[in-house]
Input
Amino acid sequence: MNAQTVRKLGRAALLPLLSIFTALLVGGVIIWLSGPKFNGDWFGIKFVLDGYGGLFLGAFGTQKAIIGTLVRATPYIFAGLAVALAFRCGLFNIGAEGQLTMGALLAAGVGFGVKGMPLIIHLPLTLLAGMLGGFVWGMIPGFLKARTGAHEVITTIMLNYIAAQISGYLLNGPWKDPTNVTAQTPKIAESARLPALLPGLHWGVVLAFLAAIAVWYFLWKTTWGFEIRTVGANSSAAKYAGINVSRNIVLAMGLSGLLAGLAGAVQVAGVNYRSTLGFNVGYGFDSIAIALLGRNTALGVVLSSLLFGGLRNGATIMQFRTQISSDIISVIQALILIFVAAEQIIRWIYRVPATPDDAGQATLSKGWGKS
Amino acid sequence: MDREVVLEARNVTKTFPGVVANKDVNLKLHRGEVLALLGENGAGKTTLMNILYGLYHQDSGEMLVRGEAVRISSPSESIRRGIGMVHQHFMLVPVFTVAENIMLGAETVKGLSLDSATVRKRITELSEEYNLNVDPDAYVKDLSVGQQQRVEIIKALYRKADILILDEPTAVLTPQEADQLFAVIRTLKAQGTSVIFISHKLKEVLAISDRIMVLRRGQVVGETSPEGATERSLAEMMVGRSVLLEVDKAPAQPGAVVLNIHDICVNDDRGQQVVNNVSLEVRAGEIVGIAGVQGNGQTELIEAITGLRPTKSGKVVIGGQDLTNAVPRKITEAGTAHVPEDRQEDGLVLSYSIADNMVLNTYYLAPFAHGVVLDEAKIRENADELVKKFDVRTPSAVVPVGNLSGGNKQKVIIARELSRPVKLVIASQPTRGVDVGSIEFIHKTIVAERDRGAAVLVISAELDEIMSLADRIAVMYHGEVVAIVPGDQATREDLGLLMAGAKLEGVGT
Ligand SMILES: Nc1ncnc2c1ncn2[C@@H]1O[C@H](COP(=O)(O)OP(=O)(O)OP(=O)(O)O)[C@@H](O)[C@H]1O
Ligand SMILES: [Mg+2]
Output
């Protein structure tokens, strides 16, 4: 890495880092307000520091904590990559949650439905089924957009509902685990489970890192990625250059869905060993936050996922040590998202001037702007 | 001149990474004066204006408004100080009316509601005072480019600007609209407004300005008055060498028909037929020019030929292959180069590097790709070569195209399209916003393509360009080719009349 690349990376990371920092500050004020305030040690500041200390310890302090963080980060990485990839094509995929649901359902279906196969065949089949479910669920809005111009924000939200209904039907009906009252599938076969890399850590995390590398390579080093990025950056210029805009929209949405579907499948094959109704709620929006914080880059998504995974994982220890509600984590996550999206606020607070490079940066609003 | 100096820049220097855009620039603008700013593409004109307008801040040097040293840090502050700017790309909201656009950011309120009656009255007053002819209730999206520009001018006047910066205002105007703009500028000047006017069209500069300042590579290299200058002397001052203002070409040696447009009809976006049964042939080794007032179907005709717009009826044959309604990629692969009319929208991806833009339609072919894997080294090599050959002024081929000056952006497209071995060249407004030196170069390249045996179709709003470049001139009026005139027999007057719909005796199809 030469000095120029380092400087470029530093510039790209500056605003996200400042956003995280600011969110933690504001979150600190909220924690302070919920504590003993001026009556506490050091005017209540110790309470805040204890809270954050617990959070950090719980997230990264021990081997066990790190493993927990990695496990939680894994689906975030897949789903964050999904949103980022669609965004590179100028598409705002709000539907990661629905695609993830479909991926988890199909993976579970193949996982418990197929029996007596060796792991070397059954596991890939399970993951493939998840990818397929997500792929189809992503392609539908892509196709609708390419054919009729229907905005993907609307159609993906609608498909989220449909996926939730399908999931509700299957998990309460034909695919329900008869031995249990909860709406969930039976456990998947041993041969469909991701083996452990270390105790408590499944191989899915390795798949997630590989997926990040694959997405990076695909987007920046191949002609397919070039086409998708060109459509996202200027669809009119893409059309003039002979690029098939419709096909790329369908492809990008399909691949985005595939990644989200994989998030669901890996969660089924690596952690839950079944699909449970409602386990996926929240992933859709978290993945948007992660993609935004990571500036739609593969590396950024991985780092943001580790942060979000760490926050979630550390929250338990924090609550245990300081009685601070773990809900504060959701508040901090939301604050990060606000500051990342409303970049101008951060620029204004820290006097970060806009550089000419920023002119080329994709912004959130773009996904809404073009029909 | 002893009139009041309203705007002054002293030793202004501005650098971008790898480029000195302005170096120790001194500029004085007097009350009621039209100052023309000339310079090659990338000389630093727009940058200097952006500094005066508060979009950029200079690295060193001073700015004075009416004798008072100021630090203008934002456009809203420059507006407060009476400086208005009309950018080459307008900043209007298409779905708002003229009045709403003008109010935007300077809303007049009455109680809780917008006081639109007062605003509309004021717009009408201004419109009458300066002869701008703008209807406050029209929607911006329905206005022509020239009218939109006048809205921008009213917007500045409404905010009481008495210093007006016009950055290449005529690049997008038809000759008629340009004449109207000059009338407006004269009125403004008579009322005491000071104007800075940027243009690459030397004729205009001589016609409208009181004083001319020339920039080269960021520095002021001279000042003159229109009385003491000619187009030739100005061109020399800008480029630093003598420039050929006419095209130097041998008579055409037309060969086989390459582009055969047979009786085609095309609709516009609103579904109205705007190309009516047009037939046209372009042969290898000849340049055919399409002349016509903008909006007479030229744009749609070109889009139909290049596969960007459906052809309703008729046939488009390129190199013997029927390519009616083929996809753009097929038409490119049949050996067509296309320089689109709107370079920002259609020709370039501004956030991409120059290198990526240079392969925007060939990225998937060897040597730029092996299978589906891009060869970045080859892409870079290609760009370095073309940057040199086409004299694109840039620190390197990896900078985003968006950072280039307007004319250099155009050169990137020209380089991409005219560096491939093609059979047919279609160029819309190939020299829009390009400096005289580069116009000379682009014209030479087009003629060289012709002499190499390519068929060339050129569309230009500049009659001079069409007349000097084309071997045959097709005049379009109301969606029809009303006449085809040999290039060496065409006169400005005849063409002007044909473009206005007159039928001429003696010249015809
Ligand atoms: N935002 C930017 N970032 C980096 N470089 C820039 C930026 N804006 C302008 N430049 C560089 O500064 C130089 C001057 O550009 P400028 O746009 O002022 O030229 P210009 O005289 O207006 O040219 P033209 O006639 O082509 O419009 C060019 O080399 C350009 O590449
Ligand atoms: Mg300029």
Summary: The domain at 11-355 of chain A is CATH 1.10.3470 (ABC transporter involved in vitamin B12 uptake, BtuC).
